[in-house]
Amino acid sequence: MIKTSTSTLTIADSHRLLREKQISPTELVSLFIDQIDKVDPQVKAWVRVEKAQAVERAKALEMKMKDPDELPPLFAIPYGAKDIMYTKGIPTEGGSLVNKGFIPDRNAKVIEKLQNSGAILLGKTTTTEFANWGGPPETRNPWNLNHTPGGSSSGSAAAVAGGMAMLSLGTQTAGSLSRPAAYNGLTVLKATYGRISKAGVIPASWSLDHIGAFTRTVEDTVLVYNEISGPDPDDSATWTLPKQNLRIQEQRGYTVGVVIDDYFQDTDAEVKRTMEEAIREFERMGFTITYIRLPDSLEAANAAHHIVMKSEVAHFHEEEFLKDASRFGFFLQEFIRDGLQIKANDYLKAQRIRTVFRQEVSDLFKQVDLLLTAATPTPAPEGILATGSPAFNLPFTNAGVPTLTLPAGYTKNSNLPMAIQLIAAPLEEQKLIDAGYLFQKQTDWHLNIPEILK
């Protein structure tokens, strides 16, 4: 086995090493298990690690390696999954006493697809209670253990940033993919609503939830997205059209609309500096930069998001909540109580507001190919009692449009990651990939690793 480090190893690198027989599936998995043993006592990204099962699967995969040139892109790639995703025979507790000891008899569709691709599940990662606001786990940010890794996909982001997995599945209902990616120096694609099946994933809010995967690079993001996206008869919200074949290609002819609403200007000085540098980089790459504002319905749409989310959270948990509310954490109890008070008419009105906002956001792309904002108002906040603001992510989750979060800088004193967020029209993931891949060819922010891994 060649000498390599999990801290910098990408999916694309690993695929090449496996194909050239410079590393075996068992050796690859063992590297990541060793890294978990070394790093996770500090970071606390994992709820449980299935070491024996992962090694057994790696051994079984080795027996199937007949023609290395025909290995699937995710063959033997170690990954983690947020603990709201059903894993057959492995507890799925969602960070809540309500699900304590629950063991599913089936896999979530995304888990099933990864298993079919040859990927190896290492275990389950931490989440806020049922992926809702409040009740954060003890997970730490690998870049600075005194700071939050973000949430609700706390453990999934921290596991990849800590070199403990090459990819990890998460979800987003407001900002739970984009924000942790930004705080942890990672790349993440939040695809168009319905592009990735939610079947077998405990919902936070079924009309808002998105599934995605944290990786180090845009190239890796494409490899994962191609495996987990596509229509699913078990999820009626998925698109019933052929899976898009994303290619990695350069595109310098796009017009990028920098969002200049006051809403997106409320950032700290270092985030503002990062945005200015990113804009200059896109100009150097040959993109046309213009400036644009979001629809006036933004404020009403944000309010509608909260109504819809609270209503749907309350509806899903109502039966268990009425049985024994004390099993839920304090924050989720309050959330559910609020949701149970929302009238059907208010819920339907909120959904109509969302529909208008979605159309108005989509119409912006008649003027530009992409939108650009900072991914978060600030770097990762200090402490772990809160997971940071999803304000810059929520509007685009609400609209169901695809976004790509890219590392774009680090704070000068604390060396915390900062990121930008690209947004495209519905089903235009390819434009995000084109721009993001070129950005990562011209910059090296995504190549840095936390100090604790050096």
From TrEMBL:
Keywords (A to Z) from UniProt: Transferase
Q: Which InterPro entries match?
A: Amidase (IPR000120), Amidase_dom (IPR023631), AS_sf (IPR036928)
Does the record's keyword annotation contain Transferase?
yes
Listed GO molecular functions?
A: transferase activity
Q: Does the keyword Transcription regulation apply?
A: no
SUPFAM superfamilies for this protein: Amidase signature (AS) enzymes
Cite the Gene3D superfamilies for this sequence. Amidase signature (AS) domain
Query: The organism sits in which domain of life?
Result: Bacteria
- Indicate the segments forming the Amidase domain, all copies: 27-432
Q: Which PANTHER family match?
A: GLUTAMYL-TRNA(GLN) AMIDOTRANSFERASE SUBUNIT A, MITOCHONDRIAL, TRANSAMIDASE
**Similarity section:** Belongs to the amidase family.
Question: What protein name applies here?
Answer: Amidase/aspartyl-tRNA(Asn)/glutamyl-tRNA(Gln) amidotransferase subunit A
